[in-house]
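input
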Amino acid sequence: MKKYLVMLVVAILAATACEDENKQLQQDLDKLMTENDSIEKVHSDFEGIHQQMTSKYEELSQRLESAAIEDSSMLENLAAHEVVLQKHETWMKSHQEMISNHKELKADFETMTDAEKEAQISKMKTDHQNIMMEHETMRSEHDKMKKDFDEVTKSLTESETGSEETS
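output
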């Protein structure tokens, strides 16, 4: 009888421990989903900024093509920014895919084993860290790009004004 009582107590403790772990995993996921929503908002803002930078790049490229340029560094500068814009485009597509996958994870979470849940939560944390790091890099590169675009615009305007005055 004592054996059965001990086995019953052990079974109850095991069930309680599993329930507590599952509750903790659900709390971890909820916290990450809130973070995911925040990251998605920042991502959306970056899409708008990226579109502005791409438009400005295209505008400057067209102006440089039609202008008589003596300084080839402006063309080199724009070519370097084109590479950065393409990198950002790739990152943003990757970020959008990760964000979507994270949303899908929430729907499938209850059907997973605890080990699968832990693995998915760990991956989600890593994804979030990578996205935030790449967002910070994009922010820095956008700031530099904006300054460079402003300088190129100023130089182009000065050269166009100068060539009009000599005509």
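quick obs: The chain has a mean pLDDT of 84.
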